[in-house]
Design a protein that fits this description.
Layout lengths: L1 H6 L2 H12 L4 E6 L2 E5 H11 L4 E4 L5 E8 L3 H10 L4 E6 L12 E7 L18 E6 L4 E7 L4 E7 L1 H11 L3 E5 L3 H7 L5 E5 L6 H12 L13 H16 L12 E2 L7 E2 L1 H6 L13 H5 L5 H12 L5 H16 L1 H12 L4 H9 L5 H12 L1 H9 L4 H8 L5 H10 L20 H11 L1 H16 L5 E5 L3 E7 L11 E5 L3 E5 L1 H32 L3 H27 L5 E3 L3 E7 L17 E6 L5 E5 L6 H17 L7 E5 L3 E5 L12 H15 L4 E6 L7 H17 L6 E6 L14 E11 L2 E10 L7 H7 L4 H16 L2 H10 L17 H10 L7 H16 L2
Parallel strand pairs: 1-5, 7-10, 9-12, 10-11, 13-23, 18-22, 21-25, 21-26, 23-24, 24-25
Antiparallel strand pairs: 1-2, 2-4, 3-4, 5-6, 7-8, 8-9, 14-15, 15-17, 16-17, 19-20, 19-22, 26-27
Helix pairs in contact: 7-8, 11-22, 12-22, 13-16, 13-22, 14-15, 14-22, 15-18, 16-17, 19-21, 26-27
């Protein structure tokens, strides 16, 4: 080992020392004008980036893999490495190689991970880039979410299901957690996220508490409302530790921490978010709801709308306020139009001010910040003159930051470059010495032309020219035909084939002046630009507030635009326990119909007195699933503050939405369609509430008909007879046997999606009608799907044979004679042998009885019930 170390080159020795400090990261090692990767890193990088993999000698007989790219291509290659799930350590040269003898000092200046990046090429403008930390407590799991690029910092805590739902809603790019819980985490979530494990002490409560109070400079956490949230504090502390660990030292833009309050938002479990296709679709060619609702013009608005979609509100006052703003925009198209033009100019104000705070903004981005701020004042004016109190309230939340705007306008050039060390950043008239140096540096051409003209006249050398190169600087070039006219005081520097090159004392003096001026210009400009950025940091909180307010205006303006375009109505929000929708439509499907085809609207009414459960029968493809989904989407859109696709809607605030719509096998985990269906249904029945909305589609279809009918029937009974809650339910089924259930349960009503039979064909009317459906029309659907004719004809024969037979009649009789459960009677209350069986059961000791004895006792009970 010692021999090997001796053979290592100094460069590789330095590389290995730095690599040892960041073993889990892919190290980009700056060597001259290139970023190099070595060994395993080089193999990985070459595959991801599609760059050449070579080998070099490592100062000995052994070789090491090598792959690199030019340093100016970092913005091209870094995003690819990070998106592939890598943590990337950027190791830069910390001193100028020209001024150093021997090895250049190097160090990691930034560690970019999937969840921590400020790089525009890594980030998606219209989505947040969250880092999540999980802290596993005794009873709850704490979660913390940070978007470093915007400074948004949130915490919550709760059950494993709740945390799972939050992770699905916020979709973090990276999750960090404690090594100790690796197995528990991986069994549930490993395949979904980029992850990184930290030591156990980092998740300590005292450590987390001290980290947060120290960062926010507060005595306690009461002001943030998280003082008692111990598991959440542990998770938030781990996030701040991770920031330090990854060399993210400038974090002043993380100025607050907020609490995600479970009781403030509608509960949408992970199945519902998936089933309703709010953010993503289950089919590759599908359209999620966000694509219909998102007409936002700013990145802040787009990111906020995604949060609103997965966190619908339960607070009537806040919902009404949002709806009032949307209505104000709908009623004032001219105001809406002028606001749209202003919003287009804003850009990503939120991420720009974060770059100011971490001192990583470039001159061109500071010009963008100025343009964004220029549009704030006109927006304030437009809202103030709208004659609407709610809109005026929003105008009060905006700050024009006039002093900052004036300073940037006064000092920064409009066409400033990306890099501050290239010059041409600061305007003329800002700094006296800078103006003088510019005259020297940039009026040099005029001076040189005058010098050339003067020397031509003095010497008579007509072909004389003045030029510049990096080796000799400025020089006079004389062709061989005139070299006998060269004055004695000229100093010869270079002989060419056809000419000679000379320098003069005057030329050398002026060259020094110009080159020194250029160096000084860059130093002064960089200093002035840095001062301008530092001045801007005083406005971070005001501009963050501006960005948040602009995001809200953008979202509500987007709602107004789609309300007008798609003919939506303002929903009435009530505390009553009802949902009343007239001529409701599916917001996504109606946008995808062929030109000229109208969406068939439907009415839906649910309450807890007369119509708690709607049992909807009808054939597959008739539109039952679409009806269920559209009801949920209308409710969620209303509680987000959006107008809804209907002619009238009165929505009683819903606190939980459960859906069991569609089925997807989870074969990789060994779960069948039926198992997934039953798991999701169990989750609904165990978590419902008085104000829940439950949507169930084709429950029990994954098993035999009798099993399916029995399970579906039993679930409807359970929901109707629940001792505490009368949850509003829509239950779609193709088991028309369930029509019978309304005779025994007063709040269950039958509906069917109507169809017409015409010349042995079926036409789907997609209209909801009262009453049950008698047929499933499955064979007609099979024919429409393109099933071979001989199969369809044979199926028809079998169906007619069965319908003629008494099987169907007996089947219906069985359904009618089902044991009633509408009074929730005890298991044996109606049986004369009840006391005898009860006495027998009371004498049993289930801890000592053997399996055979248990079977014998069960047989004895069976005999008693039969009446011996």
């Amino acid at each position: 080992m010692a021999a090997k170390e001796i053979k290592e080159t100094p460069l590789m020795k330095q590389y290995n020392a730095i690599k040892a400090k960041h073993p889990g990261a892919l190290l980009l090692f700056r060597v001259g004008d290139f970023y190099e990767t070595f060994g395993e890193d080089a193999i990985r990088a070459s595959k991801i980036l599609d760059i050449v993999l070579t080998k070099r000698a490592n100062g000995s007989a052994s070789h090491i893999e090598l792959a690199g790219f030019p340093h100016h291509s970092l913005d091209t290659y870094l995003p690819k490495l990070v998106r592939a799930g890598n943590r990337v350590a950027i190791c830069d040269q910390l001193e100028d190689p020209k001024s150093v003898k021997g090895i250049v000092k190097r160090g990691v200046t930034e560690l970019v991970t999937p969840g921590l990046s400020m790089n525009d090429n890594v980030l998606d403008q219209r989505s947040n880039n969250y880092l999540a930390a999980l802290s596993f407590g005794k009873e709850k799991i704490g979660i913390s979410l940070l978007d470093l690029s915007t400074g948004e910092f949130m915490v919550s805590q709760g059950s494993e299901n709740y945390i799972d739902k939050l992770l699905q809603s916020f979709n973090p790019s990276e999750v960090i957690y404690c090594k100790k819980f690796k197995e528990r985490f991986e069994s549930r979530l490993q395949d979904k996220y980029n992850t990184y494990c930290l030591e156990e002490w980092i998740f300590g409560l005292d450590y987390g508490y001290e980290k947060l109070t120290s960062h926010f400079k507060t005595a306690n956490l009461k002001g943030f409302g998280i003082e008692e949230m111990t598991d959440a504090i542990c998770a938030a502390g781990a996030v701040l530790f991770y920031l330090e660990e990854t060399e993210h030292k400038e974090v002043n833009h993380i100025s607050s921490i907020s609490r995600i309050e479970a009781d403030k938002y509608v509960w949408l479990d992970k199945f519902t978010i998936r089933n309703l296709e709010l953010l993503f679709t289950q089919q590759s060619d599908g359209t999620p709801l966000i694509d219909i609702l998102d007409k936002t013009l700013t990145p802040m608005g787009a990111r906020m709308l995604k949060k609103w979609l997965v966190l619908p509100l339960k607070d009537k006052a806040v919902i009404e306020e949002r709806l009032s703003v949307v209505e104000a925009f709908v009623e004032r198209p001219a105001l809406q139009e002028s606001l749209l033009e202003l919003l287009k100019q804003i850009g990503d104000l939120e991420r720009l001010i974060s770059k100011v705070s971490v001192l990583r903004i470039n001159p061109r981005e500071l010009v963008q910040l100025k343009r964004a701020l220029t549009n704030i004042e006109p927006i304030i004016l437009a809202l103030k003159t709208s004659e609407n109190k709610t809109l005026e309230k929003y105008s009060d939340l905006l700050n024009p930051c006039r002093h900052l705007l004036e300073k940037i306008e006064l000092e920064l050039k409009e066409d400033a470059p990306i890099l501050s060390n290239l010059g041409n950043v600061i305007k003329d008239g800002v700094h006296e010495e800078l103006d003088e140096l510019r005259k020297i540096a940039y009026s040099g051409k005029d001076y040189l032309l005058q010098l050339q003209k003067r020397e031509v006249e003095r010497t008579g050398i007509s072909s004389l020219k003045i030029a510049y190169n990096k080796v000799f600087g400025y020089y006079l070039e004389v062709s061989n035909a005139h070299k006998d006219k060269v004055p004695e005081e000229w100093i010869r520097k270079q002989t060419l084939v056809n000419a000679e090159r000379y320098i003069t004392e005057e030329l050398k003096t002026y060259e020094d002046k110009i080159l020194n001026a250029e160096d000084k210009i860059h130093v002064i400009e960089q200093s002035l630009f840095r001062d301008l950025v530092l001045f801007s940091t005083d406005y971070v909180s005001e501009i963050q507030q501006n960005a948040k307010t602009i995001g809200m205006i953008d979202c509500l303006s987007s709602f107004a635009e789609i309300a007008v375009k798609n003919n939506y109505c303002r929903p009435g929000i009530t505390e009553e326990n009802l949902i009343d929708i007239k001529e409701g439509r599916h917001p996504v499907i109606e946008q995808q119909l062929p030109v000229g085809e109208q969406y068939i609207p439907n009415n839906v009414f649910l309450d807890d007195i007369s119509q708690q459960i709607m049992v909807i029968t009808g054939p597959n493809m008739a539109g039952k699933s679409a009806l269920l989904r559209q009801t949920a989407l209308i409710v969620l859109m209303a509680q987000m503050g959006s107008f809804v696709p209907a002619t009238y809607a009165k929505i009683g605030i819903v606190d939980k939405v459960f859906t069991r719509v569609g089925a997807s096998d989870n074969l990789s985990k060994g779960e069948s369609t039926f198992m997934v269906e039953m798991t999701e249904t169990a989750s609904i029945l165990n978590n419902l509430s008085e104000k829940s909305l439950i949507l169930m589609d084709e429950i029990g279809r994954g098993t035999s008909t009798y099993d399916g009918v029995s399970i579906a029937w039993s679930i409807v009974e359970h929901l109707h007879n629940h001792p505490k809650y009368k949850a509003k339910t829509m239950f779609a089924t193709h088991y028309h046997e369930l029509n019978q259930i309304t005779e025994d349960f007063p709040r269950v009503k039958n509906f069917n999606v109507s169809v017409k039979e015409l010349d042995n064909r079926v036409i789907f009317m997609r209209k909801l009608k009262e009453g049950g459906s008698e047929h499933s029309f499955g064979i007609h659907v099979a024919q429409m799907a393109g099933m071979p004719n001989e199969v369809v004809i044979r199926a028809n024969e079998i169906l007619h044979h069965l319908e003629k037979d008494k099987i169907k009649e007996q089947h219906d009789q069985k359904i009618q004679s089902l044991p009633k459960n509408n009074f929730q009677l005890s298991m044996f209350e109606s049986d004369p042998h009840y006391e005898e069986v009860l006495s027998l059961l009371n004498k049993l000791d289930i801890n000592t009885i053997s399996p055979v004895e248990a079977l014998l006792k069960l047989n004895e009970i069976k005999s008693i019930l039969k009446g011996k």
